[in-house]
Amino acid sequence: MEHPVVSDPSPAEAPAVELEPAGAAQVFGDRIALARRFTADLAQYGELLGLIGPLELPRLWSRHVLNSAVVAPYLRDDAQVADVGSGAGLPGLVLAIARPDARLVLIEPMERRCDWLRSEADRLGLDNVEVVRARAEDAVDSGPFDQVTARAVSALRTLIPITAPLVRRGGELLLLKGARVDDEITAASKQISKYRLRDPEVLVLGEGIVPEVTRLFRATVDAAS
Ligand SMILES: C[S@@+](CC[C@H](N)C(=O)[O-])C[C@H]1O[C@@H](n2cnc3c(N)ncnc32)[C@H](O)[C@@H]1O
């Protein structure tokens, strides 16, 4: 899909896009140019394509791109990774940018979002991305994966049952969560035990480097569920 041509909105209509925070170059290293292109594309087309709301533009880097990118060091070497519910490409495309050694399979049911993900991966020249149009629960045959990520898809109680079956034995769930992650973990205690998640923990990432920290729920899948 070609991205649509849009005329520049007047400054009065469009909230300003956040300037690149100081920590971005440190987080992306030599991949920063691609991250800048992705962020610029998302700023230009994201609202039009229904990927992000207009209120997100002033926090596009902090709340979205860097929030996703700080997870990159937690991908295993050459990992096969599924990102469930990628939407605008968060964290899936961002991780594919930051970690060219990993292979990212983006599992997303909405056709227009899949079109965006495929065209953006092409545009950025990312050859480590595959897009699967499906719900996670119907995509088990695409796996198993070393690691599975998801961000802003649902609470752990419902997210674990659709993500854990995609993970190979000994693989990991890496689920990006908000400030109430501890409450979500308490509410998901049955699912954590049913899907045999070992050593569940919350990592707080990006402190002192990026403007907003990321809370990452990480757990190992002990056995085939
Ligand atoms: C709120 S959006 C979040 C998108 C992106 N991860 C982000 O952080 O901006 C939730 C996404 O999850 C997708 N989704 C919802 N249920 C799903 C399921 N069962 N399997 C895979 N994706 C799902 C939706 O289509 C949507 O793109």
From TrEMBL:
One of its GO terms (molecular function) is rRNA (guanine-N7-)-methyltransferase activity. Pfam families: GidB (PF02527). It is an enzyme of class 2 (transferase). Transmembrane segments: none annotated. The keyword S-adenosyl-L-methionine applies. It is found in: Cytoplasm. Its main location: cytoplasm. Keywords: Cytoplasm, Methyltransferase, rRNA processing, S-adenosyl-L-methionine, Transferase. InterPro entries: rRNA_ssu_MeTfrase_G, SAM-dependent_MTases_sf. S-adenosyl-L-methionine binds at residues 85, 90, 136-137, 151. Its EC number is 2.1.1.-. One of its GO terms (cellular component) is cytosol. Specifically methylates the N7 position of a guanine in 16S rRNA. NCBIfam families: rsmG_gidB. PANTHER family: S-ADENOSYL-L-METHIONINE-DEPENDENT METHYLTRANSFERASES SUPERFAMILY PROTEIN (PTHR31760:SF0). Belongs to the methyltransferase superfamily. RNA methyltransferase RsmG family. This is Ribosomal RNA small subunit methyltransferase G.
